[in-house]
Amino acid sequence: MDNISVQQPQNAGVLINPNFPLLESGATMHLGVKAGDVANRILSVGDAGRAERIARLFDSPESTKIVKSERMFTTYTGTYKGVPISIIVTGMGIAMMDFVVRESTFYVQGNVAMIRLGTTGLLKPSWPAGTIVVAKQARFVQQNYDYCPSNSNDEPYRLTNPVDADASLKDLLYSKLSSKLSNEKVREGVNITTETFYAAQGRAGDLFEDYNERLIQFVEENESEASNFEMETFKLLQLADKSKGKIKAAACAIGLINRATGETLPYQSLHELEVVSSEAILSTLAEFSLDNPISN
User: Fold this and answer.
1) How much is the CA Rg of the chain, to the nearest whole Å?
2) Which long-range contacts (CB under 8 A, 24 or more apart) does 6-10 make?
3) Pair 56, 1: CB distance under 8 Å
4) 3-state secondary structure of 152
5) In its UniProt record, which GO terms are filed under biological process (predicted)?
6) What average pLDDT score do residues 188-209 get?
């Protein structure tokens, strides 16, 4: 992809539309995309290197359109099996996912299918590192900043109600992943998206009072199917749920570590699973029907 023409970020100039800020060029404020830059089928990944590697799977990688923004977002658009698909570097956390979902779909006409691929910490002791978890639902863990240890009725963390993945897209994704890997390597579960990587995932330390010693226990007591920790999926599914039918969303993640057993996945194995899962996701996006009308 070394010879690809890249659309470089430009100075913002004057922002227009304070409710949904756009640059004078028409580009969105954070992603820097304009009409025609993003396809109806989108793969969201957190890792910039991963996005670049996946883009090499396009039909004609040398023809990939790349849009880089000043806010560290990069969008790759090409075709897979003849179908236009965009890959977007999302970064980490629900705020970044919020930018990506809202701005990537701003100019897109018609329905959108969007899948997230990430890495994750597994919660089930019997699931080995390297397990790929497909989210059937997601819930969000947020720190309670008003928590007072002397109030025995208060909890230091809060867990939202679940939001569903799109059933048809999720089922197709699960089928595609399972066809490339054994059923034992692909599992469904309830994704637990967390506000932060350290405190809200129960990583204790001596420098800060995070009150998270019981966090994993708290999550598992309130969600028996809690399968994994990561930081983006809930926001993707929540926005899709509130998109008036425009966005169909699903997500999967590669288990990089098992939080219960301490087992970790070697990076060579991660990259191998990355290729397999990326091919499955691209096939899912290419085959998924987007003929359903938008309900206003």
Assistant:
1) 19
2) 6/66, 6/67, 6/68, 7/32, 7/37, 7/65, 7/66, 7/67, 7/68, 8/68, 9/68, 9/69, 9/70
3) yes
4) coil
5) uridine catabolic process
6) 96
Q: Which fold has domain 117-296?
A: Rossmann fold (3.40.50)
Q: Where in the chain is the domain with CATH 3.40.50.1580?
A: 1-109, 117-296
Amino acid (one-letter) located at 285: L
Instruction: Answer for the pair 42, 86: CB distance below 8 angstroms, yes or no.
Output: yes
Q: Which two tokens stand for residue 198?
A: 């350290």
What are the pLDDT digits (tens) for 31-76? Answer: 999 999 999 999 999 999 999 999 999 999 999 999 999 999 999 9
156-to-21, 140, 195 alpha-carbon distances in Å: 36, 14, 13
* Segments in the chain forming alpha helices (H): 48-55, 94-104, 167-180, 215-222, 233-241, 267-287
Look at residue 38 in the predicted model and tell me its pLDDT. 98
**Over the chain, what is the mean pLDDT?**
94
Which pLDDT score, from 0 to 100, does residue 88 have?
A: 99
Instruction: Look at the domain 1-109 and name its fold.
Output: Rossmann fold (3.40.50)
How do beta strands 112-122 and 83-89 pair?
A: unpaired
Q: 173 near 250, Cβ under 8 Å? A: yes
